[in-house]
Amino acid sequence: MTPKASAELPTPLTRTRLYEQVAEQITAWIRQNGLEAGDRLPPERELASRLGVSRATLSQALVALEVVGVVVVRHGDGTILTGKHSESRIVEAIRAHADRMPEIIDIRDALETKIAALAAERRTEDDLAAIDAALDTMEEAITHGDRGVEADEQFHGAVTTAAHSDLLAQTMREIASLIRESRLESLSQPGRPRNSLNGHRAIADAIRARDPEAAAAAMHAHVEMVSDVALLRGQER
Amino acid sequence: MTPKASAELPTPLTRTRLYEQVAEQITAWIRQNGLEAGDRLPPERELASRLGVSRATLSQALVALEVVGVVVVRHGDGTILTGKHSESRIVEAIRAHADRMPEIIDIRDALETKIAALAAERRTEDDLAAIDAALDTMEEAITHGDRGVEADEQFHGAVTTAAHSDLLAQTMREIASLIRESRLESLSQPGRPRNSLNGHRAIADAIRARDPEAAAAAMHAHVEMVSDVALLRGQER
DNA sequence: GATGGATCAGTGGCCTAGCCAATAGTCCAG
DNA sequence: CTGGACTATTGGCTAGGCCACTGATCCATC
């Protein structure tokens, strides 16, 4: 490498572990042969030699697959498929889809509407303060010409916290990365941040007034507004 | 199988792997010493001897922790904490809570209400047939004095399928085990299965009529009915 | 005929020992 | 002060081996 390369270097070069490659080869092999739940993998010794790795490495790969829930390894018996594949990860299963925006909208609508309603019922004064703070942050961001992506997330995060439901919060966190993408698209539209802020205000007011139905309605309208953008973008393709 | 032994045997006795114990010891050690993101674990050789296991086994444990996202292992450098702990798994985070029923109700309400509405919009004739089949199964189960737990799951599964949203389906699957528990409790109440079946019928009718709002309302009422049981049980404790 | 014990082959669990490869720090030459 | 070489430390992976568990089979016993 010589001087000029001041631009971005290709990659931090993520090193792949052997066990990862082995795990992928195994799952690929499973798909190819159309194996299903209950089917057996070959014995470790055989599989290891077939893959050209040591039994220790294969064992690591199996541990990984077991943790993810793809297989269950039974002492003295063998390694059995669970048919779960990678169902555990919500996100990855969806990422493959090209036109996944509508689905994200659906689930946002489902979760956030409920969250808004719960927040209206359960919010404390502290929760309210956090929500207001997020509104101020967004106000300021927009005034400075920023899109307010972070402030947007801050707001929704504050509302989620106010709902006081670990399960809902956890689930939101699970799909956070997907939602983030839709946010970016939405807030990139000219004039959209302002609209979004107004939506937030309506939601905040309903939560302040402890009115679950109004909060749900406001959140629903807000998500719908975002969906316009998404659908529009879907047509562009 | 001989007739008499119809009682339940103690347990299928789940065997614990050494690497699992090691992984737990490590996480426990992390908590005890209040280690945070960026902190290092001791070298493998040392850690292995301190824990009294071989390096190979310790390595398996680290693979498991790496897959879950607790640590990142860097060749030639060491093992570094990520501070993520186990945020990825929705379920486990909640299992710890003693009184988690209300939260399950909340998220069921959020997801299934939306799912019902979508099902009403998008259902095909095949979807409808599957839903009706589930109703018949439950009808029969109840007539035979069964609680109809499986038929209940079959129905909700059919509705979820009819919603044609992979993301929602995925999320439902993610919390399926939690919901299953709440189902068991609900359907164990005398007279409850019959009530539940009526609720299902109302939902099915709305979906058949392609009426999203009615479907959502019916599903909401259905989930509410279940929640009565749950809350009642919460007071028992 | 059914039950229960012994046996045996196949399979995973775990270990020891060792070499290879990457990293980061140090020191030295230019 | 920069760049290269060296070195200690650390993880990556392999080989080979013993032990424990599982399931099937056979056989003695009741």
TrEMBL record, chains A, B:
<dbReference type="Pfam" id="PF00392">
    <property type="entry name" value="GntR"/>
</dbReference>
<keyword id="KW-0238">DNA-binding</keyword>
<dbReference type="InterPro" id="IPR000524">
    <property type="entry name" value="Tscrpt_reg_HTH_GntR"/>
</dbReference>
<dbReference type="Pfam" id="PF07729">
    <property type="entry name" value="FCD"/>
</dbReference>
<keyword id="KW-0670">Pyruvate</keyword>
<protein>
    <submittedName>
        <fullName>GntR family transcriptional repressor for pyruvate dehydrogenase complex</fullName>
    </submittedName>
</protein>
<keyword id="KW-0805">Transcription regulation</keyword>
<keyword id="KW-0804">Transcription</keyword>
<dbReference type="InterPro" id="IPR036390">
    <property type="entry name" value="WH_DNA-bd_sf"/>
</dbReference>
<dbReference type="InterPro" id="IPR008920">
    <property type="entry name" value="TF_FadR/GntR_C"/>
</dbReference>
<feature type="domain" description="HTH gntR-type">
    <location>
        <begin position="16"/>
        <end position="84"/>
    </location>
</feature>
<dbReference type="InterPro" id="IPR036388">
    <property type="entry name" value="WH-like_DNA-bd_sf"/>
</dbReference>
<dbReference type="InterPro" id="IPR011711">
    <property type="entry name" value="GntR_C"/>
</dbReference>
